[in-house]
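Handover notes (outgoing to incoming on-call)

Open items:
1. Lipopolysaccharide export system protein LptA: sequence verified, structure written out, both below. Nothing else pending on this one.
2. Nothing else urgent.
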Amino acid sequence: MSLQIPSLNNRKSGIASVALALLALAGNPAQAFDLNSDAPIKVSADNARLDDSRGIATYTGDVIITQLNTRLQADRVILYRDENGLNRIEASGSPARYTQPTSRQGEATDAEAKNITYSAPDNRLTFEQDAVITQGNNLFRGQLIHYDTQNRVVTAEGSGANGDDGGRVEMVIQPRNQTQQGN
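Lipopolysaccharide export system protein LptA structure tokens:
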């Protein structure tokens, strides 16, 4: 089943929090789904349930949502609409995957987590449970990662003292000019 959602108007931390500009990692800005764009958001899935009176659409079975080159793939996705249009996307999978190209030439931003939520009013992507964001060889890992798509700020939390990673957030940032590493 495939459904096209027309573009809609966009509306506008913890124990071990780290705040930084995500794209300082590689210097290439990325955005989430652009609800102000003329490009439609396309949804395909094995099954769909649309509850128009509540403004909820639930998709299950290899769900793929795309807008231009932005892609979200999950086992289950719920879209929430209100009088202003699409305002929230909740995805879950083993893991759910998100890919966003950069607006300049460079590496795409790839992310995965068991739960991914996009909140249009907050301009926020949230990655929960085993979250990993990569851009080229740069890596950002934590149990909970919030990405403010408007201000380009990431806030991350580890799993706590009892988790396998000791409650820590992990970042790997490559040098801007990797060809100079051998010199």
